[in-house]
Structure formats: structure tokens, C-alpha cells
Amino acid sequence: MSIFGNSIFGHKAPDTAPEAASAVGGKGAEKTDAQWREELTPGEYHVLRQAGTERPYTGEYWDTHTAGVYQCRACGTELFTSKEKFDSHCGWPSFWAPLAEGNVRYIHDRTLGMDRVEVRCASCDSHLGHVFEGEGFGTPTDQRYCINSISIRLVPQEDAQVSGTEQEN
Ligand SMILES: [Zn+2]
User: Fold this and answer.
1) Tens digit of each residue's pLDDT (9 = 90 or more) over 85-105
2) Which of 19, 32, 94, 152: CA 20 to 30 A from 127?
3) For residue 138, how many C-alpha atoms fall within 13 Å in the half-sphere facing its CB?
4) What does the CA dihedral 119, 81, 154, 126 come to, rounded to 10 degrees?
5) Containing domain of residue 84, as a range?
6) How far does the centroid of ligand 1 lie from the alpha carbon of residue 75, in Å?
7) DSSP three-state, residue 132
8) CATH number, domain at 119?
9) CA of 24 to the centre of ligand 1 (A)
10) Do 93 and 59 form a contact (C-beta atoms < 8 A)?
11) What is the pLDDT of residue 30?
């Protein structure tokens, strides 16, 4: 069952802004392992740089509904937004698409006896989580980007407090 053959790697996000690609390869790309150890907390380092996984239902964002943008915790690249976040009840923040396809990269991961697609930050190559497909969540892509809370940082939208109507955008 090669579920990722077509849709992930051949997927072209229709709303990908051209300037999104230029953000890739910026700061953070050439940091040494020692620098990462210094800048990140041990927990962040373990997940981001050693492809660890935080325990489900323990992260900051698995049940967050705040409007905003999720940045890479290692380099600050904007990776996901609250618009694509959905409740998967798996214990990790779940998104049905990245902010832009060029902002993340995919690696075939056959560790732990599983066949998965790892998701990394395209800018600094930090581990974010995995993406799964065809689980029937009823989202526009039928994909679930299962991302560690500790790999990302939510920047709340400025006007998020304005309750009531949300007509713009
Ligand atoms: Zn990054």
C-alpha cells in the first residue's frame, strides 16, 4: 500500500506563495550540533535534532485552538497555521497541510519497524513529526501532519481576541 506515492510528493499547494521558497535555507542551516545543544532545551534538542517524539497529550498545543501561526522552534520559519489545524484526538497537534509546501521536507522513515514519512523543517532540517494519509478524518487533504508541540511555537494572531465575527480573510 504505497499511500504516499502520489499525493505527498506530487502535491502542489495551489496557494503557495512564490516568496515562501526564498525563506528556505536561511538562518540556522549551518549550525553545529554543539550550537544546537546550547540553544535548545534538552527536550527540544531530543525531538528537533534527534528525531525524538514527545509523549502524547503532554505537549503544549495538542488541544490548542488559538488563531495564529506555528513557527519552527529551532529557526523560526513559519510552518503551519491554525487554519489547517484540526482535532485528531491523537495527543499531538495535527494539521492537514503545511503553511506552504516548500517550508517542510519529507523523508521516508522505516525505523521502528514502521513505514512512515517524516516531516522536517526545510530551513534548518529539524525533525517536526510525521505525516499520515488516508485515515478518514474528512479534512481537505485526508492527511494528518502529526507534529510534536515541542518542535513548534505558536505566534498568536494579533486580532485573535476580537470575538464574534471573523469576516476578513
Ligand atoms: Zn527550522
Assistant:
1) 999 999 999 999 999 999 999
2) 19
3) 2
4) 20
5) 30-157
6) 4
7) strand
8) 2.170.150.20
9) 9
10) yes
11) 80
Q: How many domains does the chain have?
A: 1
- Classified as helix, coil or strand, 72 is strand
| Nearest-angstrom CA–CA distance, 166 and 169 | 8
**3-state SS, residue 79:** strand
Count CA within 13 A, CB hemisphere, residue 10: 5
15 domain-assigned? no
CA of 13 to the centre of ligand 1 (A): 20
Q: What spacing in Å lies between the alpha carbon of 76 and ligand 1's midpoint?
A: 6
Residue 17 falls inside a structural domain: no
- Is 136 inside any structural domain? yes
pLDDT digits (tens, 9 = 90+) for 33-67: 999 999 999 999 999 999 999 999 999 999 999 99
Cell triple for residue 92?
Answer: 499531538
Question: Mind telling me the catalytic residues?
Answer: 146
- Residue 21 in any domain: the answer is no
Backbone angles phi, psi at 109, to 5 degrees: -120, 110
Which residues neighbour 160 within 8 Å (Cβ) at sequence distance 6 or greater? 66, 67, 68
* Rounded Cα–Cα distance for residues 77 and 124 (Å): 9
| pLDDT bracket for residue 159 (50, 70, 90) | low
